[in-house]
Amino acid sequence: MENDNLSAMYSKNTPNREDAFNQLMDMYGEEIKRLIFSFVKNWPQAEDLTQDVFVTLYTKLETFRGESNIRSWIYSIAINRTKDYLKSWHFRKMQVTDKFKNESTTEKNAVELHVISNSEDHLLYKSVLQLPLKYREVILIHYYKEFTIRETSEFLSLKEATVKTRLSRARKLLHEQFIKLGGER
């Protein structure tokens, strides 16, 4: 879809608005859910936040001006919604509650987790998830989602120089964390 067609396609009065919204959900739903999960580290919460993002998208669809790529716009909504959640009382309460829970795994799950944890990809992913949020978000947006530094700075409302600095520091921390978890140098 091109941005030129979006304003006509997504306007409130167009009969194709529902089709356009459904197409956006199909195109970006899983991608947005994975992005949100990388911030909140909880699948049920990531699903709830993804749903919330798409409800917001649906209600604000007619406000899309086409000045940016629709994917960038959706990412901005998702990142902002996720950051709001991470600042919320509910999230802080959930973190404290989760620390006191001891979840048992079956022997089969333990074996599967052991096999997965030995893979380099899993170690790298685990290392990224353990980074502080301000470093994790630039790594995920820039490297995993392949947005430019300029786009990343727009999403996060940061200067490009700040994004570059955070990327540099994040790579260093990521390397240290990867080695600490048993990855190869």
Low-confidence stretches: 1-8, 99-108
Class by helix and strand content? mainly alpha
User: What is the radius of gyration?
Assistant: 19 Å
Give the CATH class of the largest domain: Mainly Alpha
User: What is the count of structural domains?
Assistant: 2
Fraction of residues in helices?
over 70%
Q: Give me the CATH fold name of the largest domain.
A: Rna Polymerase Sigma Factor, Chain: A
Described by strand count, sense and barrel closure, the largest sheet is:
none
The CATH homologous superfamily of the largest domain is named RNA polymerase sigma factor, region 2, helix turn helix motif
Q: What order do the helices and strands follow?
A: HHHHHHHHHH
Proportion of beta-strand residues? under 5%
Task: State the total count of DSSP E strands.
Answer: 0
Span between termini? 43 Å
CATH architecture of the largest domain: Orthogonal Bundle
Q: Average pLDDT value?
A: 79
Q: What is the molecular shape?
A: globular
The tally of helices reads 10
Structural description of this entry:
By secondary structure, the protein is an all-alpha fold. The protein folds into two domains: 3-90, RNA polymerase sigma factor, region 2, helix turn helix motif (Rna Polymerase Sigma Factor, Chain: A, Orthogonal Bundle), CATH 1.10.1740; 105-180, Orthogonal Bundle (Arc Repressor Mutant, subunit A), CATH 1.10.10.10. It has ten helices and no strands. The chain has helices spanning 3-9, 17-40, 43-60, 70-87, 89-100, 107-117, 120-129, 133-144, 149-156, 160-180. Helix 4 packs across helix 9 (149-156) and helix 7 crosses helix 10. The longest helix has 24 residues, at 17-40. The protein is globular and about 55 Å long. 22% of the residues are buried. Mean pLDDT is 79; it is low at 1-8 and 99-108. Belongs to the sigma-70 factor family. ECF subfamily. Residues 124-174 form the RNA polymerase sigma factor 70 region 4 type domain. Keywords: Sigma factor, Transcription, Transcription regulation.
